[in-house]
Every structure is written in C-alpha cells, then in structure tokens.
C-alpha cells in the first residue's frame, strides 16, 4: 500500500466565545477513585456457590448467589472471585446498593461465556452492574460474548422497527466512583462496554477485540454520564472504538490504540427529543490504525437541535485511516423516518497537533456541508 508523503497537521475550530473546555488540562480533572485498603477483603468464590467451570453449565444462580452474599456482607470489604476456568452464564445482574464496606471488588481470573440463545435475553444486555457505588472490576479474565453465534440475528435495520437489539456484553448503569481495569472483552454480541448514567468511573488497561466486520460492536459506548476516563487500552472491533452518546460531560480519553474500527465518535445525536448536550470531551495521545474514521461527529436530521461543545482531539496519530475527520449532520439522510432538518450546533471543536499518513481520501475533513462550521483552518506540512 502506498504511503502518502505528506504529513498533515490540521485543526478545525468552531466559533464560540471562548475555548473553555478545549483548554482544560487533565491535571484539573477530579482524581481517580483510589480507596485506602486497610485489610484483605472477604472472598466470595463463585465455585463455593455452585459454579461449574465446564463451559456448558449455566452458572447464573451461582453468580447471583455469590454477588448477593458479598453485597450484603456488612462486616468487612468483599470480593467476588471468578477463578480460572470457563463459566457459561445467561443474562446476569450484579445490583446494589450494597451494605459491604467500600469498595466492593469483582475479580475475574477465568473466562465467562455468554449463552447464545436470543430468547434468553429479555433486555439488551448480558452482564449488568447496576446502582453500585465504589465498584472495582478487575483481573485478567475474559468476557466472551460469543458474537459469531449471535451476529446473524443482528437484523433490526432490515426488519420491524420494534425488534430488540442484541445484548451488550457489559453494562454499567448508575455505577459511581468506580474502576474497571485489566478485563478482556471478546466478540461481544453488540457493544462491549456500555456506560450509562454513571459518574466518576475510570476504565483502563482493557483489551477489546472483535473482527473488523462484526456488526454494531462498539468498544465502549458512553451516554448520560459525567467524569468518565478511558485510557491505556487497546480496542479493535467492528464499529466505533469509543462512541460518545448524548448527555455525556467531562469525558477524558487518552493513550488508546484504535483499529480496526470506526474511530472515536460523538453520536449519533439528535434522534430523540430527550437528548441533551455533549460537553467537555478531550481525546489525546491516541493512535488510529486501519480504521474507517478518526475523529467523528455524527448527527441525525432529527427532532432536536442537539449541542456538541468543548471538544478537543489532540496529539493524534492516524495511519491508513479512510476519513481522518468527519462531521456528518445527515447520518439518516434518505431514511423513511426523516422529518425535520434542524442543524445540530457544534462549538469549540478542535483537532490539533495531529498527523495523518496514508490517507485514502483527498480531503482530511469530510461531511461538514451545511453544518455550523463557521470558522476553520487547515495547514499541511
């Protein structure tokens, strides 16, 4: 493959009064939740509650029992242990609030495999952590969504509109002051990690992998959340490496290797009236290799004028990226449910100190026709 000789240093800025969020440094963000651990936690080993590591037995009852006992343990800190071995489980929820001293830990050493019967999932998530304050999900274990067996059922775009999407592998809902580290997510049915309604959560040293042609397998999807950090991880999947949904604020992403995948994207936005502003997104020191997109904002010709502001992509390396920067306001153009044409407002958006090589299209910025790109600059060296 021929490599472009030119190295492009580029920037896009959307006019506003000041670059408040874009200049915000990492040092000003709230520090990672790091509890002081004064004693060893009490261990709740799932095998002691009946889990069988044969890769066939459904261990949902054992997993729930171990979590329930740990969550109710009020005397000492608690840790749920999934030891080495392969454990199969159906739709599972670890829910709080817990009475155990904080933090409560889930350590995964083995491989957890999803059941592959679509009828067993009553909602679109496989493994859910819900309403927990101070969770530590850690270990070198694997969550295997067994996507190849489920992707053929990913047909919502071609069937009735009310069909159920495939489950996300790991969903975090109303989880605050927490850490997710060391985990591998393999072949998710749909999204690998779904962060919704959370605050002050750090995700790092993750390994997220699925084939480049796997459908809708976003690596990490974040929505309606504040103060989320994602860093020092490798993501290669079939959709966005990181997708940033509506009502996301104060998001920090750095030291991510992305590829294959669709880049790090904001959106799509503007589809539903309840959607709120995306404000304060900083993406730094990331590398994109063999991705369809790099930095992207995508919005619907929808029912609301969603706002995106204070966004910075900085110190980005892109190699063999088809579309380095995409601002697309017409992602649903031509769809039968297109009814409105409110322009989405994007402010304080910048891409700077970044380089692109082996670019497949002649223009580094694509898809901004008709949107509110009032002021822009491009410089090549």
UniProtKB/TrEMBL annotation:
SMART domains: PbH1
GO molecular function, one term: polygalacturonase activity
Keyword Zinc: no
Main location: secreted
Subcellular location: Secreted, Cell wall
GO biological process terms on file: carbohydrate metabolic process; cell wall organization
Stretches of the chain forming a coiled coil according to its record: none
Signal peptide (UniProt feature, chain positions): 1-25
Keyword terms: Cell wall, Cell wall biogenesis/degradation, Glycosidase, Hydrolase, Secreted, Signal
Keyword Signal: yes
Active site: 262
PANTHER family: PTHR31375
Family affiliation: Belongs to the glycosyl hydrolase 28 family.
Protein name: Galacturan 1
